[in-house]
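Incident review: delayed structure delivery

Summary: a single-chain prediction request sat in the queue longer than the usual turnaround. Root cause was a stuck worker, restarted by the on-call engineer. No data loss occurred. The affected request and its eventual output are reproduced below so the record is complete for anyone auditing the incident later.

Affected input:
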Amino acid sequence: MKYYIITGEASGDLHAANLMKAIREKDDRATFRVWGGNRMKAAGGDLVKHYRDLAFMGFAEVIKNLPTILNNISFCKQDITRYKPNVLILVDYPGFNLRIAEFAKKAGFRVVYYISPQVWAWKKSRVKKIKKYVDKMIVILHFEKDFYAQYGVDVDFVGHPLLDALAQEKVTPKETFYEKYLLDERPVIALLPGSRKQEVARMLSIMLEVMPDFNDYQFVVAGVNTITLKFYRNIIGNREVKVVVDETHDLLHYAEAAMVTSGTATLETALIGTPEVVCYKGNLISYWIATKLVDVKYISLVNLIMNRIVVKELIQHDLTKENLTSELNLLLKDQTRREKIKKDYLEMREKLGQEGASERAAGLIVSMIKKD
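Output delivered after worker restart:
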């Protein structure tokens, strides 16, 4: 069978790659044409476009890059038509993927959406498009099934694929990790500034401001391979800070606390068990528009899943050196707070379901195609 898969960011690349491996176990003749990243390519995908050329963050950035986005949409439609897949699998990335879903459905292709867009947070009108143009919606958060049911959309909940990804990983021994990557033996504060240049430039500068108040700790940046080391070093300047590329999970295993830019990384950090403070500061125009459109109480997945405050969120004007310093001090030195956060993390993990999300999703997709 021929599978065409589209995602536009690092987390989607990870989950789509695991889905591809699971599909191949059920369909030994599977071939994949993909928009994604290195993991999907390593999983056997014919990589059409890399997500580093697709990721535009915020309303202002999208408008600025609109010609590029429109060209990508046009090219994608042509490429799908030429490839003639048995199924089109869309992974999150709604601004792009919902346009492609409409085209593909009208063109007669089967459409599966794996990992729902956050329509429960904003643009609830997108549910109508999903109902009309998506043949099968596969969701990974327990509350999404109830949300879609309100609109008469039947979805399949498979659990969160991060559980699979983390279960498959082997943690580097602490001594080896320290010797290979870190400055010295001091305990670690991890900095996760994001995966896009715009957010890294904004977030990392703010995170680094607290360094003088934590001399007993070493600060380590979780870098991504789609951003050059030079880019990070230009922001870091002459500070003694290490950048560890594509070793985020190992870094979190050995960090005493983490400053994390809002996104999937907040959930990864919680599943690994590292106390965190969630940070977000956007372009002023983008943030103002978001406040008018977004309809959720929290921005971190941890708090959204638990429907209460588990981790502190410092957003926009609240994201200051003083507030970051105060919260980090609590995370590092208040044992009661640390124990409460870790207990909440365990409760959150239970809400995510069991391991095997990728395998369950693959089973649903392959069964649908074979039935057709």
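Verification: The first helix runs from residue 10 to 26.
Action items: add queue-age alerting; document worker restart procedure.
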